[in-house]
Amino acid sequence: MTTRTAPPRGATARKPARQGFPPWKKRWFRNSSRIWLKRYNRNFARATKADMLVLDAGAGPAPFRGLFGHARYESADFKQYRDDQTYVCDVADIPVEDGRFDRVVFNQVLEHLPDPSAALRELCRVTKPGGQIICTCPLYYEEHQKPYDFFRYTRFALNKLFADAGFVVQKVDWMEGYLGTVGYQFEGMHRHLPRAAPADWSFWKARRTELLLQSTRAIGLLFAGLYYKLDAEWKFTGAGYPKNYVVIASKPE
Ligand SMILES: C[S@@+](CC[C@H](N)C(=O)[O-])C[C@H]1O[C@@H](n2cnc3c(N)ncnc32)[C@H](O)[C@@H]1O
Asked: Where does the record place the region Disordered (predicted)?
């Protein structure tokens, strides 16, 4: 077997994989999850009246704050993200009275909680009777905010967790369609496939493999963009599985 000696490919330290596309790619290959997330939150915000008090729980940098500009808004996160963040606390222990909030916004947090039942019970406690919660969380997404990434949820788990916490579940929807999941799989191929074959492979075996990897990476980028675009226009839910679920639930009167 012919082995190559220099330069040893694959020997250089690789940069850690990014969590998403770099900014120039984001512009051209916009992840449809962000679009669907905004659509669901916009609808929830439209159904929120001006005198209602909203809690954005696990708000992070509060990307949806503007949607609730017409209502009264408070935010909580265990890290201080903004000067105007209302509470720095665990969402399982919010320093407010029972039934304070008319609406709770709970986006992309549930998977980060080691005890999701305790957090949902607390969110139910701080919700007014008749109040509503929107929750979005992933079923299919790579590990992120490590090591604070504990769970993925099926619709059945979500139904049970919310009901056990005291909410009445109104709906559990796919947030994106399957085309969005496929787009994300293509994005993953583009970002995670290695560029170089193992250093001790024969020259032609390595070249063939690298050609395969590089063409798959290029196709991954192109198809991610095309599927994300399609998913934003056509939410196909006839087969496959969603990247995220969205739960709308209320606290009984
Ligand atoms: C993926 S980010 C989502 C942020 C924001 N909701 C959004 O939609 O962009 C998860 C957020 O949950 C917060 N978080 C995680 N565990 C928490 C906890 N136990 N109590 C309060 N915040 C928590 C993190 O600090 C982070 O800001």
From this structure: 1-23
Query: 244-250 and 127-138: which strand pairing?
Result: antiparallel
Question: How far is Cα 49 from Cα 36, in angstroms, rounded to an integer?
Answer: 22
The Cα 197–Cα 214 span in angstroms is: 11
Contact 65, 86 (CB under 8 A): no
> Candidates 109, 110, 126, 141: which one to mutate for ligand 1, based on the most atoms within 8 Å of Cβ?
109
pLDDT tens track for 27-76 = 667 899 999 999 999 999 999 999 999 999 999 999 999 999 999 999 99
Q: Which CATH architecture has domain 29-177+242-250?
A: 3-Layer(aba) Sandwich (3.40)
Query: What's the pLDDT score for residue 3?
Result: 39
Count other C-beta atoms under 10 Å from residue 179's C-beta: 22
Q: Which atom in ligand 1 lies closest to the alpha carbon of residue 91?
A: 20
CB of 116 within 6 A of ligand 1: the answer is no
